[in-house]
Amino acid sequence: MPRWGMVIDLDRCTACQACTVACRAENNIPFAGPREAAMGRAIFWNELIVRLEGEHPYPEIRYLPRPCMHCDNSPCSKVCPVNATSRDDEGIVGQIPSRCIGCRMCMCTCPYTARSFNWLEAEWPSPMEKQHNPDVAVREKGVVEKCLFCIHRIRRVKETAREEGREIRDEDVIKLTACCQTCPAGARVFGDLDDSESTVSKMARNRRAFSLLEELGTHPKVIYLRERT
Amino acid sequence: MNDTHTPSETDSIIRRALLPLAHTSRRFYLFIAALVPLLVVWGYFVVYQTQLGHGIGGGGTKGAIWGIVVANIVHLIGISHVGIAISATVRIMNLERYKPLARIAEIVTLVSMTAAVMNIALDVGRIDRFLVNILLHGKIHGPFVWSCTVITWYVIGSSIYLYLAMRRDLCLAANMIPKRRWLYRILAIGYQDTPKVRERHERSVWWSAVIILPIMVSVHSVYGYVFGLQAGRPGWFNPILAPYFVLGAIVSGFSAMIIIAAIVRKTFPWKQFLPPRMFKGLGVFLGFVIWLYMYFLFSEILTGQYSPPEADNNVWSDILWGRFAILTWCALLGGLLIPFAALFIQGVTKRICSVALTVTAAVMCNIGLWCIRYLIVVPTFYHPHLPYRITPYVPTLEEGIVMGGTWVFAILFFSVLLKIVPVIELPEDTPIRTDSRFVLFPWITLPGRLKNLIIAGVTLFSVAMVVYGISTWQGDYAPLKWLTGIGLICIVPLLISVLIPREECARPPSFPRAHARQYMTSATPWHARAPRMVQDKIVASPQAGRPPP
Hints:
The structure holds two protein chains of two kinds.
Chain A: E1 4-9, H1 18-26, H2 34-38, E2 47-53, E3 60-66, H3 75-79, E4 85-87, E5 93-95, H4 105-109, E6 115-117, E7 144-146, H5 151-163, H6 170-173, H7 178-182, E8 188-192, H8 199-204, E9 209-210, E10 222-225
Parallel strand pairs in A: 1-10
Antiparallel strand pairs in A: 1-8, 2-3, 4-5, 6-7, 9-10
Chain B: H1 7-17, H2 19-22, H3 26-52, H4 68-93, H5 99-123, H6 130-137, H7 143-176, H8 181-188, H9 195-228, H10 241-267, H11 276-306, H12 310-321, H13 325-348, H14 355-377, H15 397-420, H16 448-471, H17 478-498, H18 513-523, H19 525-529, E1 532-534, E2 537-539
Antiparallel strand pairs in B: 1-2
Helix pairs in contact in B: 3-15, 4-5, 4-9, 4-10, 4-14, 5-7, 5-15, 6-17, 7-8, 7-9, 7-17, 9-10, 9-17, 10-11, 10-14, 11-12, 11-13, 11-14, 12-13, 13-14, 16-17
């Protein structure tokens, strides 16, 4: 059984936000108008966090792409009252929008603020609705949504491997998610963290590897590689 | 009230206590008419929100995920707790002086809990799935499920407790208020005032009070856990939150009780039942719990400010010295310190016994506590662990209407209950006529053994349902199972009181045809007076023209 994870090399990341755009297109993430965006209601499954470090005259801007961390010890799935979010056997923290009651407990408890609430009915300015991905359902108002590690693509790879009568290979999944596939700098890699020979696993053992908010003990499966100084 | 009243005094006390039931003034109708349009506006916004989503109100993912409605839920649940706290303590400790307050407290519990549940339903994104999904897919590890469980337990338990404690007075009301006899006869479900029945009834009410007190503590503890178990929120993740919330509930609840008692005292001629000394006593207790609450608050602030973690430090700095500073200091000084000082001075000075002072302190304290609830819920959203750009939270008109409408509903509900049930506990020495005319369900009597069998069966089945639900918590329908069990457990005291062994029955054991006429005469006087068919001819009833009994 694989344990899916992702490594993001911050040294390679150019903060171009292609991952964010690809994620939005792949997962039918609705547009937020200027008013809603100003109210902090824009939905991002993958988001670029900008952080200003240091002070004048030596300021430094740091960029951090942030998908859902798919924590092994996920606080969100623990607090969900109706099991609308839960961690599956392969470590993906899933979300069932049609079961979610919209209590937003998971959003409050997520230390990474990686979950978004559909405050209003989703809208796409014409003709953007024509680019909807038929593999991903559009979420209704009043429910929470989040990054699912492009689970529909994982399923497709599994089916292909089954049809061909073989195991899933590292090269099948290394650029599997929309964000990894789109990253022009090759900063994002996806794969099985439990397979010691997989690229993602090797990168996760790098000396530069770290997790976000490690001290909280959530054991994220998205691992970052520190920038080289 | 004491037992030294003469019969005429007792009669006057009862008439005064039952005044809201016997007489409704034009002012009451005007008051209700004023509330109804507000309720209509509220209903409009509720529908509007349900149609369009929660975006019509405030809040945002990168902003306040929860807002004033959640603060209001915590406040309402807090108020609901003290209702039972006062009532159960009065009953368990036999505090005679505070007895007239007990029923009002129980009604406040029921009203505020209903309003709180309503607010929860209005705050979740999918009101249509809220209860169904909790019952079908609820998981035992979710604090929200704990809260639904204990709230259900508390609502059912406290309603039954309220009813049992009131049953004798309902029977008395059936005696005293002829125009609503039909209603109180239904509500009293065959109560009869024999010494044995009365003793059993008192015992089951006492035990209900003993059982309901820990449930009351658990409900607000669970609300502490809803916040306190969230590691992802700086300022919330704190083991002190459960006892702190229970104490906060007692503070806000006692202050609300003082306000409500003062209002009903002013509205009805009840100065005798609710004397200034009672208010002074309540004020002393309120002062004491405010002092305890300030101690908890101080511990929390000290921990938050003394040293890192930085995230908690930032939240508390914002609350104390940052954007929330004005609200915080107004709440701390105006809502806690000044009321405490006023109540302390009144408590230690024999000469001062002022209802106005106590009520003013209670009003300030209650508003202060609401602000503190707001300060518990909102500031943490300004300081997430990761450096997001946060949209400042400003409560919107829509949110205010959704929240305020719940208060209007609560006031309306309370006012209607005041006009329906006897709010002041009537003196125990009042004689009650319990002949067959005042019994609605004579067939409720049954052999003593059968009664014991039914009670044992219900108890066993309910415990089994709870165990079954909890042991199958991973599957669907688990909450439905354990909540069914809990609901059935709650009705056991009701069964003990309502089912009367035939051996102890004061009225005829069966309901023979000979009694039917007499029963119908009292139950439906208009039926008895109606013309009837005798050998295909319509003849006037022998009762026609007589005044109703």
